[in-house]
Amino acid sequence: MDVLGACQAFVYVSERGSFTTGAAAARMSQPVVSRRIAALERHFGGTLFDRSSRRATLTPFGRAMLPSAKRLVRLAEAMNDAAVRAKLSPLRLAVPDTCPPRDLAQLAAEARTLEIYLDFQAAPPQERRDLVRSLDVRAALVALPAGDGQWTVPLGLASAVEPQERAVYVETLRPGRGDSGSPRRIWIQPEDDVPHIRDRIIRLRDAVGLWPVQVAVAGAPTTAVAEVLASTDVLLCSAKEARELGLHWRPMGEVEPMRGYDVLAEHRDDALRLGSHLGTSIGRCLGAPDSEASTR
User: Fold this and answer.
1) Residues in domain HTH lysR-type (predicted)?
2) What is the 3-state secondary structure of 58-72?
């Protein structure tokens, strides 16, 4: 028996003093209300209403049971209200600061159709993990080695002047013996200041004979971009980032560094909802090639 449904019928009829108006208030048909109250009487072994009069008058047993029935109905209503509020509460998501605002807005709009209300917090890689651990966010897009995560983003080198070659070989940045000016640098953004990317670029620097100062880690993305715009330096970034910044992107000739990403969340359900239902839109924000192609 549906005890809650029966108690709702009991409460509404008792408050209105009529099976007809009580059924209307409960948004049930009168026959349904009558059956539910009869089932409740059988369940408790007592008569709730005196059916000898035209009004729905409570019996002594009915008056004794009414307060408990009201508490149950009010509690159910409160739970329904809490569920609505919980669905509307924002899911705070830590994201890379390389994600374009327009793509994040499109992700948020798509999430709303799934009753997921996203609130973004941009942060560098390690801080995103720390935000999940400290419960300042419910989930984060965390950096991983390529192949270990759900999304992969190839990186290359971007410059203010368009290169003639289809790929940029890092060895071509090596200063010649007669060069007296500042050597060209590869700028690494905070998003790529992680061992699986940064260390690989440094090993390549040493292998091809670049000076130590020719690989620099910027304190902020805007710093790295400004250095590239004002010089012949190059920026390590994705092809999508380069387009957003108005730079000319080429893959690297010697290696193919990649960003990897996955969802880290306090609760597994949050990770599944984001990764499964919003995977394509998240990939677009990160600059994953497959996600970009699927939206064209």
Assistant:
1) 1-59
2) ECHHHHHHHHHHHHH
Tell me: do 169 and 122 sit in the same domain: no
Tally the residues of the chain.
296
Q: Compute the distance between CA of residue 24 and CA of residue 67 in angstroms, rounded to an integer.
A: 21
Domain boundary among 87, 103, 132: 87
3-state percent helix, strand, coil for the chain, nearest multiple of 5: 50, 20, 30
CB 7 within 8 A of CB 73: yes
**How many structural domains comprise the chain?**
3
What is d(CA 113, CA 253) in angstroms, rounded to the nearest whole number?
43
Looking at the structure, tell me whether residues 248 and 290 fall in a common domain. Answer: no
Amino acid at 220: A
Cα gap 252→229, rounded to integer Å: 19
Shared domain for 252 and 266, answered yes or no, is: no
Q: What is the CATH number of the domain that holds 195?
A: 3.40.190.290
Could you say which DSSP state residue 276 is in? Answer: I
Same domain, 135 and 167: no
The answer to whether residues 195 and 240 belong to one domain is yes
Q: Which domain holds residue 21?
A: 3-87
Residues 140 and 287 in one domain: yes
Q: What are phi and psi of 24, to 5 degrees?
A: -65, -45
CA–CA separation, 216 and 184 (whole Å):
11
